[in-house]
């Protein structure tokens, strides 16, 4: 059961990343973040009420609030990177977010094992190679790599904070709800200020700059993210967390395959090697 639900997590996260990146090529990244996360927050609110998650409220929710502030920054950078560069490069690099929880452990006195040290070295090498350092052809823009690394740092921060925000499944739902409400509020405020400087679109969702036809896709992105969190929780509860984490970390493969299948995206050999090394480094970090 652990393997099944963890692989389902990879599928859902991978498709959500692909959808978010694709939508960002048609609409502002901030709009995609606010609308998709707003839909996710609404669904999570229903789940919290249905499961009695309000009883888990307590001081730990401040961690969820912090995650809610970091989340929009991470998603904004990630979706912009997906829109600017090859998804097969961006998505694996973003999995370096796993380094943040490891860094927190180091700060608290933990020491990395041999696999973790190897993972760090492999992942850093992957970051360099994914930029396409070769004599011919245009490399991936430095801005794309930078945005991806900022997103990875933000995601890692969110993971670490959410872990501290809850100790039960119902508490996790409540923490995720608080996180997304905070994200929507912060992102919505930024979007409001941005919209005041630009005219509203003639046709579309008023004030958001997206066509009505994109609303189902935005809903899918937000709901897939919520569902992925749920399947990962089930996977971690019914088996070794290490196994669940490693299998769930394979979601960039789904994103890359979706980009290849739907967008006919091709990577140069050095970029493909870098993306693969980044993913391998992440797996080594998670299993160490």
TrEMBL record:
UniProt keyword list: Membrane, Transmembrane, Transmembrane helix
Top-level taxon of origin: Bacteria
One Pfam family matching this protein: EamA
Record's GO cellular component terms: membrane
Annotated ranges, domain EamA: 3-130, 144-286
Signal sequence range: none
Transmembrane segments: 28-49, 61-82, 113-132, 144-163, 169-193, 205-223, 243-263, 270-287
Family: Belongs to the EamA transporter family.
Listed name of the protein: Membrane protein
